[in-house]
Amino acid sequence: MRAGAVSIFIAVLTGCAGQHEPGATSANGIPSPTGDGGSDPMTNGVPDSPAAPPLLGNGASSGVVSFVSVTSDRVADVSSLEAWQRAFIHDGMSDADKADAIWRSVVAFRHQEEPGRELIEWTGHPHDPIKLFNVYGYSQCDCASAALSALGRSVGLDARQRPLTNHTVAELYWSGGWHMLDAAYIDWFPRPDKSLATVDELTAATSGWLASHPDLAGNRAGLLAFMSGGGWRNGPPLLAASPYYDSDGLFPARVQGWADTMLEYPGTSSAYEYGYTLGYRVNVQLRRGEKLVRNWFNDGHHVNDDRGISCDTLTAQPGAGQMAYSPAYGDLAPGRIGNGTHAYVVPLAGGDYRGGALAAENLADAAAGGAGPLVRVADPTKPAVLIVRMASSYLDLSGALQLTAVVPSGGAITVAFSRNHGLDWQTVATIAASGARTIDLSPWVRRQYDYRVRIQLEGDGTGLDALAISDVVQHSQRALPALAVGDNAIHVTTGASGGAGSGPGEGTITLDANTDSSQTLNRVYTEYHPLVDGLLDTPLQPTGASGAITFPVATPGDLSRLRFGTFYRARAAADHWDYAVSFDQGQSFTTVDRAAGPTVGAERFVTFDRIPPGTRAALVRFAGAQVAALDIFDFRIDADYVEPVGGFAPIVVTYEWTENGQPRSDRHVIHSLDERYTIHCDATPVMRSLTVARADER
Q1: C-alpha to C-alpha distance for 451 and 385, rounded to whole angstroms
Q2: How far is CA 272 from CA 149, 169, 196, in A?
Q3: Residue 134 DSSP code
Q4: What residues contact residue 209 under an 8 Å CB cut-off, 6+ apart?
Q5: How many Cβ atoms sit within 10 Å of the Cβ of residue 327?
Q6: Using CA atoms, how far apart are residues 346 and 368, in angstroms rounded to an integer?
Q7: From the centroid of its chain, how far is CA 191?
Q8: Are 178 and 29 members of one domain?
Q9: Does 98 reside within a domain?
Q10: CA atoms within 13 A on the CB side of 434
Q11: Is residue 561 a contact partner of residue 553, using CB atoms and an 8 Å limit?
Q12: How buried is 188 (Cβ within 10 angstroms: 0-12 exposed, 13-18 middle, 19+ buried)?
């Protein structure tokens, strides 16, 4: 995109009589309808090679290597919206082909299961399709429908979601009409001309047939008996044409089937927008001493286990049971939920920790001379401070901090935690004696993607001889670059930013939180210290004719772009939210775009890159003008910045797997920004782990 450009991603659901709306039927404003829940050729879709960033060395040796990407030719790259488009959408595709590719991608990368509760979205669980693919790999039907809508709109297809009885599906628009695509149950229904039927046609077909079979209307037991032994073929002809029922009338997951269709479609169904945010992307960053291990297995933990919500997908196996369908859509993983490890052994020796820290104040290093611990207070008349950021593309489930403290008499070390980019700090531990300590960070880090630890040292001679932080993360096994029998083409790139730039590498500061300030199990919007003018929450809405909320954003390096937007309501044509940015502390604002009505539910996300050089702080404002009804249900702000000590350093990529029960591994050192190599498997591999780390670890 050229400098100064503003790109816009929009999704608008226009208001209509009788339409459902967020806030109409449940305590949190969105009902949560529940639904039980041939090989697909895919290309790798790796971005073109960017210009090489500077080689880290000398004093910058502990800096940051960004966008460490490992892909294989066996698994589509879905690490960003741009990568997904490269993998699934190709020149010359018809709109029908695009819709099919969208549907297949959602089927391939998610499985029907109770969704992960991040508790920052209005629905309570994520609807960003790229986050869904990479972090979870499972969701409910409303999430799948929102993902279909988001991906469809991203390639120019209109989309809408249709709530049924205990189920939700999506419709995409092409060739002058709507077409139902269900990625949750894995089905669609062809008309006689082979085009796909609409929800309304399916409603008419099921209702009409049941009118002549009144004994089966709403009768699950009777419908199950009727469909058995192929009896479902004697039902509505539109349903009988489906290629997705098996001989028993079950859909590919063999949980739902013809009887569910007959129960869910009769009646009427208007459009309803379940909402989503956009902006998540995978950016694996590595400092010296930092590594990420992603596993094709789990240790039995998932995001909902602290809520008492079970998850059958923990033990699900592709090709068996409810995931019998999965290999036909390219799934090479032995499971779906992965538990990985994100670890950072802070390189205190030699002062290398400074390049990987957000702040290192009043600290002296043993490498510079003098007796004492590796890192210690320089001027004992004031505290020393070390701030370390732990940012991950994957969801934290638990964490621990280990340190070896040196605390003379009268000294102290205080460990504090921040989940809102250092705006607020909570004391985690106070250490008044020397020795090794392990601090459980799990209550603090759970459901976070980005947090900071501040270590404050006080007193002459107080210091650290060791410091390490480690988190258990949740990720999807499905999106990992798995291997298959034969030659596997591996592509490793670093430094690029998913098509959004290149150079020394980028990081991102993200602001997303619950717009209901009473839902404190995770972040709420007030934690970002916004300026609120004339708004109340649950969700955010003007108290009168107008109102605004302004979020301050600060980045560790020069700001390169702002990506932001909302899931909103603007009921009347005159209702709207203006998106604006300021780079002079609010003295002036530039209007970027408008999220306008009439709509009772829509999404609008924009990218703004007209950033003054050297900028490291901005204000992002959503200013509303209300005539009928105006709300913000969800928001997300991504501030991309140039890593101040970013560049390239050699990376070690290690695969581990088994063949015929025998352990195999491949360790490859990447010496350039863009490198390709081959891993050969003599027999079908069972994947175990993928580790990326800096090769210059000491």
Answers
A1: 16
A2: 11, 10, 20
A3: I
A4: 235, 236, 262
A5: 14
A6: 18
A7: 36
A8: yes
A9: no
A10: 14
A11: no
A12: buried
Per-residue pLDDT of 369-419, as tens digits, reads 778 899 999 999 999 999 999 999 999 999 999 999 999 999 999 999 999
Indicate whether 120 belongs to any domain.
yes
For residue 599, being part of any structural domain is answered with yes
Token representation of residue 549: 């909320």
CA–chain centroid gap for 447, Å, is 12
Residue pointed to by tokens 């269709």: 261
Hey, what are 187's tokens?
A: 């089905």
In a domain, 101, yes or no: no
Q: Max Cα separation, the chain?
A: 93
Alpha-carbon gap, residue 285 to 450, rounded angstroms: 12
3-state SS, one letter per residue, for 639-683: EEEECCCECECCEEEEEEEEECCEEEEEEEEECCCEEEEEEEECC
* Domain end marker among 614, 629, 645: 645
Q: What is the DSSP letter of 55?
A: B
Distance of alpha carbon 296 from alpha carbon 281, whole angstroms? 20
Q: Fill in the amino acid letter for 158.
A: D
Number of folded domains that form the chain: 3
Coil, helix or strand for 535? strand
- Domain check: are 432 and 544 in the same one? no
Q: What angle do CA 165, 516, 600 make, to 5 degrees?
A: 50
Are the beta carbons of 101 and 93 closer than 8 angstroms? Answer: yes
**CA-to-CA distance for 22 and 371, rounded, in angstroms?**
64
Does residue 534 sit in the same domain as residue 466? no
Report the alpha-carbon distance of residue 184 to residue 36 in Å, rounded: 9
pLDDT, tens only, 227-259: 999 999 999 999 999 999 999 999 999 999 999
- For residue 381, what are the domain limits? 344-474
Structure tokens at 107: 């089927």
354 and 409 fall within a common domain: yes
Contacts (Cβ under 8 Å, ≥6 apart) of 54: 504, 646, 647, 648
For tokens 């290597």, what's the residue? 65
Burial status of residue 671 (CB atoms within 10 A of its CB: 0-12, 13-18, 19 or more): exposed
Distance of alpha carbon 545 from alpha carbon 168, whole angstroms = 35
SS3 553: strand
pLDDT (tens digit per residue) in 508-552? 999 999 999 998 899 999 999 999 999 999 999 999 999 999 999
Phi and psi (nearest 5°) for 673?
-60, -35
CA dihedral of 642, 358, 288, 294, whole degrees rounded to 10: -80
Identity of residue 264: E
Only one residue has tokens 């504090």, namely 416
Cβ atoms of residues 339 and 295 within 8 Å: yes
Is residue 19 a contact partner of residue 271, using CB atoms and an 8 Å limit?
yes
- Alpha-carbon Rg for the chain, nearest whole angstrom, is 26
Structure tokens at 50: 């960017």
